[in-house]
From TrEMBL:
This is Phosphomutase-like protein 3. It holds the Pfam family His_Phos_1. GO terms for cellular component: cytoplasm. InterPro entries: His_Pase_superF_clade-1 (IPR013078), His_PPase_superfam (IPR029033), PGM_Phosphatase (IPR050275). Keywords: Signal. Residues 1-17 form the signal peptide. It comes from Tolypocladium capitatum.
Length: 372
């Protein structure tokens, strides 16, 4: 391939310009294949570990190799970064197409994860998760367990080696879910020990819609804005971030539908792609939410255990006007979730709970169970 213009490494990322062509228009996303192991059908998400595999970056060549690396001593990350910059370079890109590298990390193990393991998933879902805790452990807007902290420290150490020894580009922007376990994970992963340049500081922004699927569980209810600010004073809030959690409806027994979560995940991607001119973006979020983001991006399913991280090369293209009823308003929204009003008599994996107040399973007979 003939390269007809200079590649301005890093420069394209610093400008604050938005993407005017995308404003009010429909953006279609695709996860570009051929760059990361996680895109390959043979890669098993259950055994894959980012820290054993250079985040999954494939060893390959790019058409821009050799352009300014006559010695051939650049790393895989440096050569990949040059290729992504080439794809975005002003002089030959289409105004309707942008590329970004999204590096999405799931929070480390939280107290709600530990409790789900302790009680078993059916009993957790139908009773325990609706409480704030059990007297020993608290899991409303859960914090990290000691194991979760270790998982985030491991990510910190791994990013350090990538940045310092492997030429992985620094992030242009950092985003986090508003839930405490993600904020705590992002702080432990990025706030200390990394020699970040002054032009690429760890200056994260909290975005409401990077939060976990909004079930009736108390671990999906966020804290107030003031509480979050006291917990993480260096995190900025996106415009319009409310004091109270206005989305959680667990007290009414209603949880978010999958369709709603997918639609609002597309909406937050549209927001980021339209308003953030950076190329390398870090997102700290959740298993369910990252799964929804991957679906919105056209990536194959790739489940992450706690503390795992997945990068995706995203191609975004403006394809036309946004239909007036698009985005979250068109999706069904929230739906009733059944619960037991006391610890269940028994719970069967894959089937559900038998509530103590009746012999039927909670999920089969919602009328018999308490609405929270
Ligand atoms: C790429 O090569 C390096 C060094 O040989 C190796 O450690 C790494 O696992 C390889 N990555 C992939 C995705 O095969
Ligand atoms: C509360 O749950 C935790 C698991 O997160 C468990 O270790 C602990 O024993 C439980 N406490 C009680 C009083 O059951």
């Amino acid at each position: 391939m003939k390269l007809s213009c200079p590649i301005l490494l890093g420069l394209a990322s610093t400008a604050l310009a938005r993407w005017p062509e995308a404003d009010g228009n429909e953006i279609r996303y695709s996860a570009v294949q051929g760059y990361f192991l996680q895109d390959e059908p043979d890669t098993d998400p259950n055994t894959f570990d980012y820290a054993a595999q250079n985040f999954g970056l494939l060893n390959r060549t790019y058409p821009t190799d050799g352009d300014s690396d006559a010695e051939g001593c650049e790393t895989q990350w440096q050569r990949f970064a040059r290729w992504v910059d080439y794809l975005n370079a002003d002089c030959h890109r289409s105004e309707s197409v942008r590329y970004k590298v999204l590096v999405m990390g799931r929070h480390g193990q939280g107290w709600h994860n530990a409790a789900e393991s302790y009680y078993g998933t059916p009993a957790w879902n139908c009773y325990w998760a609706e409480l704030d805790g059990n007297g020993t452990a608290a899991w409303s807007d859960a914090l990290l367990t000691p194991q979760g902290v270790v998982e985030a420290q491991r990510a910190n150490a791994y990013f350090k080696t990538r940045f310092e020894q492997h030429g992985m580009p620094f992030f242009d922007s950092y985003y986090s879910s508003p839930l405490s376990r993600c904020i705590q994970t992002a702080i432990t992963t990025f706030a200390a020990g990394l020699d970040l340049p002054a032009s690429r500081p760890f200056a994260p922004t909290i975005k409401e819609l990077f939060r976990e699927g909004i079930s009736i569980h108390t671990c999906d209810r966020r804290s107030t804005r003031s509480h979050i600010h006291a917990f993480a004073p260096n995190f900025a809030f996106e415009p319009g971030f409310t004091e109270q959690d206005e989305l959680w409806r667990g007290d009414r027994g209603e949880g978010e539908t999958d369709a709603h979560e997918l639609a609002r995940s597309k909406a937050v991607l549209d927001d980021v792609f339209t308003n953030d001119d950076g190329t390398w973006l870090s997102v700290t979020s959740h298993s369910g939410e990252i799964a929804a983001l991957l679906t919105a991006l056209g990536h194959r399913d790739f489940g992450l255990s706690t503390g795992q991280i997945i990068p995706v090369l995203v191609r975004a293209e403006v394809v036309g006007r946004t239909p007036p009823t698009a985005a979250t308003t068109a999706a069904p929204g929230f739906t009733f979730e059944a619960t037991c009003n006391a610890p269940p008599v028994t719970s069967v994996a894959g089937t559900g709970c038998v509530c103590s107040s009746s012999s039927a399973s909670a999920t089969a007979t919602p009328a018999l169970v308490r609405r929270l």
